[in-house]
Amino acid sequence: MPTLTEERATKIKEIVCEILELEEDEVSETSLFREDHDADSLRAIEILASLEKEFKVVIDQSELARMVNLKGVYEVVAESAGW
Amino acid sequence: MTAPARDGSAGAAHRVVLTGFGVFSSIGVGAAEFAEGLRSGRSGAKPITAFDTEGFAHANGCEIVDFEPEKWIRNLDVAELGRASQFSAAAARMAVEDANLDVDVLREQRGLISIGTTDGESFDLDQLVESQIAHGPEKMDSTIARRVRAGRLSAAVAHELGLTDVEAVTIPTACAAGNYAIGYGFDAVRTGEVDFALCGGADAMCRKTFAGFYRLGTIAPELCQPFDVDRKGILTGEGAGVLVLESLESALARGARIYAEVLGYGLNCDAYHQVAPNQSSVARCMALALENAGVKPGEVDLVSAHGTGTKANDITEARAIREVYGAAPPRTISIKSMLGHTMGAASALAAIACSLAIVHRFIPPTINHTATDPECEVDCVPNEAVEADLRIVQNNGLAFGGNNAVVILGKYEEHR
């Protein structure tokens, strides 16, 4: 199971909230970007691109299917980065 | 020759014909070479050289590597024009010459210039931004800055040809813009508002568009394979297509060669999504075009699809075609398999391709095809052109934002 430091998790949440234009307390680990926060597929790609830049990783676009909430994003980034 | 009614009054509806083509594409320059490229299934795909592609895992495109604007642009300083404006002005000059029109005569007539585009001079914007970031805004090149307005794509045509009694308009409806431009010209000539129209589209390769499509995951690594089960996306391309539209009376009076007749067009905008096409809206646009042309679906012999080669477009478009045409639609091809996605020029070049197909009695193939996607149930004429007597052809143009435009072309027949 990949591990995630609190610092990295905070940074990921910050990126997601900025792109989805949300306050950090509006988002939980399991609230869904599309259903609960009105995100669309372009926002999802923006999130993916920003994470790639921030953490210098390459995330396959097929992983978008898992990046539906913060929990999914944490896992995908951690796996892609080999944390 | 009957003088066209200028007031668009009843009884003034002219038949509108295509009498000249200007073509710049990665598979051929000029109508004859383009027709040969289409018939032989030529591919324009090769590594991009227009901009630095470092950092992209793959970077093929359909560039025009031997463009010599000075051969066509005689009155304007080429350095004062961006690459897209060079394409449009050069293609307009070529179209006028191909139509055997005397520019001095055109200058005495009323005309329309409508040029569609996706990116305008974004290649120049790329350079300006790069220079701003590296050296600060004061170092931006003023010549390049002067070139960037998209309005110059059509204004350059008027300037180059010395046409003063014209409306010159650049239509920015992205990947369907060429068809929009033709539709606008069709109305203007049909109603007698103008004596001639130079219509089409132009775009130049740029890093912005490549990077944008790349990030969306829609750039194919090597080849564009519309309707193929294994298709991986588009290849960006560039070029221009300009068509001369005039009334049938005008063409007959001067003994012009007639490539084809414009029968009608349809356009709509659904604003359903920034990038996702909407099936029912695309179908509705085709129905609008057929109705405008007075054509029944069963009379159409060929559909030139928007056919980008992305997963989403090809499924949606194929389903929309079946929604209009039923279980046995006409053969449906994509010339983007050969010349890539030339953006604002795409549907103009495709309209020219349709006309050349009518004249030379063949259907251009959809190349790079291995197996048709079972979800795209169309006969895309894989890999090899076929001989065919085409009477009516439909040309689709579909753009981001749900901007759709469809043009219906017919073989010229004296009685219709």
UniProtKB/TrEMBL annotation, chain A:
User: InterPro entries given for it?
Assistant: ACP-like_sf (IPR036736), PP-bd_ACP (IPR009081)
The superkingdom of the source organism is Bacteria
**What PROSITE patterns does its record include?**
CARRIER (PS50075)
- Which ranges carry the Carrier domain? 6-81
Q: Know the name of this protein? A: Polyketide-8 synthase acyl carrier protein
Biological source species? Streptomyces malaysiensis
Taxonomic lineage from the root: Bacteria, Bacillati, Actinomycetota, Actinomycetes, Kitasatosporales
UniProtKB/TrEMBL annotation, chain B:
Pfam families given for it? Answer: ketoacyl-synt, Ketoacyl-synt_C
Report if keyword Transferase is assigned: yes
Q: Where is the signal peptide?
A: none
Gene Ontology CC entries for this record: cytosol
Annotated Ketosynthase family 3 (KS3) domain residues: 13-411
Name the UniProt key words of this record, in alphabetical order: Transferase
* Gene Ontology biological process: fatty acid biosynthetic process
Q: Which InterPro entries match?
A: Beta-ketoacyl_synthase, Ketoacyl_synth_C, Ketoacyl_synth_N, PKS_Beta-ketoAc_synthase_dom, Thiolase-like
Q: Which GO terms describe its molecular function?
A: 3-oxoacyl-[acyl-carrier-protein] synthase activity
Give the protein family.
Belongs to the thiolase-like superfamily. Beta-ketoacyl-ACP synthases family.
Return the PANTHER family for the record. Answer: 3-OXOACYL-[ACYL-CARRIER-PROTEIN] SYNTHASE, MITOCHONDRIAL (PTHR11712:SF336), POLYKETIDE SYNTHASE-RELATED (PTHR11712)
What name does UniProt use for this protein? Answer: Beta-ketoacyl-[acyl-carrier-protein] synthase family protein
